[in-house]
Fold:
Amino acid sequence: MCGATIARMPELPEVERVRRSLAERVVGRRVERVMLRRADIVEGDRSPAALLAGRVITGIERHGKQMAIVTDTGRCICVHLGMTGSLCYEPATRGEKGEGKKHVHVVWTLDAGDRFEFRDPRRFGGVWTFPDRDTLVRDRWSLLGRDALAIEAGELHAALGDSRRPIKAALLDQAVVAGLGNIYVDELLFTCGVHPLTPARRVSAAVVEAMTRAMRALLARSIEAGGTTLRDYVDANGQAGGFQSQHQVYGRRGEGCRVCGIALRSRVLAGRMTVWCPTCQPGGRKR
DNA sequence: ACGATACCCTGATGGC
DNA sequence: TGCCATCAGGGTATCG
Structure:
């Protein structure tokens, strides 16, 4: 099993857990060599140097669901876990790189033979290389909205603008706010009593204010609980996430609302399975 | 211009 | 048991 971090459907809390657990192991250490086993998982310069060979890792940052591994010269890579991606720390004692494991696309070997690996069966994730942090921000992170843990109510309200699209679709849009995925959007809308079909422009400033607070609290609680584990997630210390037990609506279609008891409704919205409580989240009529 | 849809991909799952 | 259809969805390309 993976020594560090697997997250199925990694959203902001899961990525933050990966960031923290990996940073503990690799910051301050030199990348001795890089093995690229599947070239098309990397976008940009695919040379060993671009993939951080010879560099000393100085930090791991996160913006929304994306991570950046930054090094002493400023050279960095951006890692997106997609749906099934993971960054796993593997001590040297755990055998040879990628041995017997499928879908390990990149292996970074550190001093003493310890290493970390990018694995992604479905390949919705990827790795992007940048000569420096400014280029990463300019070419990639500037396309994202503010991080969901940092965004303020006024900014979120402005980002929603006068869009008529369903609030669920807007909150999933990483250019509006970075870090939310299907699970946390449904949970957030339930918490705020907002119907997922509500046109974004019709969510009042007051509700956006409450939503912003609820979003921070929800994400913070999930990070605290170790993130959401739907199948086999363990962090660097072998601990599974525990937040799934707190889900109010996600994955509970047809089951009773934990607040009012009525059967939760569901439909596909913005291409995503969406679950809500028809009484706790009234309205939703499009205009 | 905006919003909805198709597609990428593999593993888990359920039906027969 | 094994085969096949179905579903899951983050992000992007394309359609309407």
In short: The mean pLDDT of chain A is 88. Residues 82-84, 103, 121-124, 163-166, 169, 231, 270-271 of chain A lie near DNA strand B (CB under 10 Å from a C1'). Chain A has six helices and 14 strands. The CA atoms of residues 85 and 123 of chain A lie 7 Å apart.
